[in-house]
Specification:
By secondary structure, the protein is mostly beta strands. Helices cover 4% and strands 49% of the residues.
Amino acid sequence: MKKMKIIFIVVYIILCNISFSQSGWVNQTIGTGNYVSINFIDENTGFIFGSDGTILKSTNKGNNWELILTQSFTYPVKKGFSINENLFTIISGGSVFGMVYTTTNGGNNWISGQKDIMPIGNGFIWLKGITFINNNTGYVCGNDYGTLNPGFYVDGIIYKTTNSGVNWFQSQRSGVDFYDMSFKNNQTGYCTWSSVLKTTDEGNSWEYFGEVNAVTFCITPSFNDTIYMSGDSGKIYRSVNGAMNWVKYYTPFNDTLNKLFFVNAKTGYAVSDSGTIIKTTNAGVNWSVQTTNTSKNLNSICFLNKDTGFAVGDNGIILKTYTGGVITTINNNNETADKYLLFQNYPNPFNPSTKINYSLPYSGKVRLTIYDISGKEVQTLVNALQTPGFYTVNFDGSKLSSGVYYYRIEISGKSNFVDSKKMLLIK
């Protein structure tokens, strides 16, 4: 009996001081398609574009996503870009024509740019980059290659629209290929491959401005005069003088970095295949590999602020972070809770179980309850007096149907606290 008491005390001490790791990136997998692009038009509304023509939309900062469109295009979608809630543009590759499609009514009708973006010889157009600077003015870039007497040709091309994609005209033809574009403002923009092109007249003319002597696939918007590019073999390039000169940095990853996103001039992220996300906080000098708990290829990344970001990729993978990708630890003890908090459940969406964390700075009566979308109470998880600290409660939804549920916490004591959050059960 004495031995059992000792074991019980040891186990109790361990449980009271256990640490709960909160994943830096939360899996929000939806469907099985390959997602190629993600961008937000404001802090609440974002869009995800799939290679099969699907478009997902969120109106609550990426907490939930809904399928708003499945559109069949001739070739797989390479990139998509949302300008506002009605205006989207996508590009698809592998065609005789420049496959760029624009909708101005949320996808009900699509305008094709085939009539405007044509090869100059017996060749093909391969579009790779897309951006818009306002509702009317946008750009695509790529290459035009094929046969033209007396032989084979390869040209880099940039096309521009000033009427929301209804018509496109050539603004640059030079070099071999162009992969990506970004704009500092309406007048000044950059386009990249092994050399950097710059425009100061809203893309009407371009000039070669900087040389990196390497193939680069992505270029970030300019923070004042600081710009970043990513290339093959995990290399990052940085310019602090508006693309005139570039410094090369090496990352822990040795393959192509598919997409770059910088929150500010010093903090940035890059994604690649096999679930790779890397982060820098010192302007690209050093990079750390983040834990994503997936091996699926990642194709695009974006952030709403320094903490909240998203990455999308193959086989329906959607990752979200609330912590800038950093793994945080919650200690279930009385020492670290300094305010009332109800955390977002993890994982979310979930099947069939998820964890709900909350913190108490003071002792109080705690009631934690689950409701369905109609407001009907489904289950009470906690209804007890609790001491200060961090707590984790497991919710098992195996007996419930798929759908939206809410969890609500009510705390009464030294001070009162009420909060609720939404979660999604997908079976």
